[in-house]
Design goal:
Blueprint (H helix, E strand, L loop, with lengths): L10 E2 L2 E2 L1 E2 L26 E2 L2 H10 L6 H4 L2 H25 L6 H12 L9 H15 L7 H7 L3 H14 L35 H19 L4 E3 L13 E2 L9 H4 L5 E3 L13 H21 L6 E4 L5 E4 L2 H29 L24
Helix pairs in contact: 1-3, 3-4, 3-11, 5-8, 7-8, 8-11, 10-11
Length: 374
């Protein structure tokens, strides 16, 4: 149902309000309001201005290493997520407006969002360079000096990156969909047994895919305002027994929640909007989009030449064949698209509440999905 918590999601009185990504809450508002603490602040923070929504979202990535932040792949993904989320929230506001008073301003805002630039294409070189970044940030963990480690504390975005990969290496990482990511199967390195020489190890495609997925999940969680769904009344009421969706149990608690990167919303068993009965539709839409993107990505991924990635103490990984490069491309395409589709689908399903005339509209069913060729 549309609860008091979600009834005016995206609206304040007759004025439309964008829901900000959790990490953007730590960026000061343009009107001078102090930044909120994403770990303990309100479940949502809003802004009526798309320029502020985009600006604060973009600045949430300021703490990223410069080469990762400026990667064409990273920029394309993050800007696409900002635009897709903004448009989906506008569509939700239009469908939930009971009297139509906000239609004019919303359409004016939509025109601004439509002009927000998103890179149209990525080259093979862009994707190869992103794979190299994957090596640097996902496959080469280091132990920071205590003074440096303490210096980063308090910056949610900066603190979350090592948390994501620590959870990954310990086999505890859970993505936004409640799905655990298997820890890598890299062989341990014994300097004494090897005579002090580096070992040459083989990373499976599954290891590469998992590490890339964790990095992409981190980037997505930075800028995706789509709420994490749990059955607790609010963020502060969450316990170890709280069930999270789409997974549907306490083991589905996303790493993003504990890292302070996700908004939170209570999900109920039935009623209007997203509920435990229809939430599976979100993953159906996201998975379908992901599968299509992976298929297309695999068809265009073949490229001559290879790249060599340094893996610190475990040696070197060579991506010298088209098959492994194809895995990198397909994973990026699939995971990017899955997050974009989920962000859009959430607001579409959430709009199944009050119609424009104020009456409840029909609840979507398992046969609600539409498949159209194009």
């Amino acid at each position: 149902m549309v609860t008091a918590q979600t009834r005016d999601l995206g609206r304040a009185e007759s004025d439309f309000q964008f829901i900000l990504p959790r990490a953007a809450s730590s960026i000061p508002a343009q009107d001078g309001r102090a930044a909120a603490d994403p770990r303990s602040g309100p479940d949502f923070e809003t802004t009526a201005s798309f320029s502020e929504f985009a600006s604060r979202s973009e600045h949430a990535t300021d703490s990223l290493p410069a080469n990762l932040r400026n990667s064409p792949v990273t920029r394309a993904y993050l800007r696409a997520l900002i635009k897709a989320s903004a448009l989906a929230q506008l569509n939700y506001a239009m469908s939930s407006s009971a009297d139509g008073r906000s239609a004019g301003p919303i359409e004016a805002t939509r025109a601004q969002v439509e002009k927000y630039p998103v890179p149209a294409r990525l080259t093979h070189s862009d994707l190869k360079n992103f794979a190299a970044l994957l090596s640097g940030y996902a496959l080469t963990p280091n132990i920071e000096p205590p003074t440096r480690a303490r210096a980063s504390r308090g910056n949610v975005a900066a603190d979350a990156l090592p948390k994501y990969f620590t959870e990954y290496y310990e086999g505890k990482f859970v993505d936004r969909f409640g799905v655990p990511v298997k820890k890598p199967s890299i062989a341990s390195f014994d300097p004494a047994a090897s005579g002090g020489a580096y070992l040459t190890v083989t990373l499976t495609d599954a290891d590469i895919t998992a590490a890339e997925s964790v990095l992409i999940e981190y980037l997505g969680d930075l800028l995706d305002p789509t709420p994490i769904l749990g059955d607790a009344a609010n963020r502060s009421a969450v316990t170890n027994t709280t069930k999270f969706w789409p997974g549907g149990d306490s083991k589905s608690r996303p790493t993003a929640f504990d890292a302070g990167l996700g908004n939170y919303m209570q999900i109920t068993e039935n009623g209007c909007g997203v509920n435990t009965s229809n939430v599976k539709l979100l993953t159906d839409v996201a998975d379908a989009a992901s599968d299509r993107a992976a298929l297309v990505g695999g068809l265009v991924a073949n490229s001559p030449g290879g790249i060599s990635l340094g893996l610190g103490v475990v040696g070197k990984l060579s991506i010298g064949d088209n098959q492994t490069l194809s895995v990198v491309v397909k994973t990026a395409a699939a995971r990017f698209t899955k997050r974009l589709a989920y962000a859009g689908a959430f607001w579409a399903l959430q709009s199944y509440g009050a119609g424009n005339d104020g009456r409840a509209v029909a609840e979507p069913t398992s046969g609600y999905l539409s498949f159209k060729g194009n």
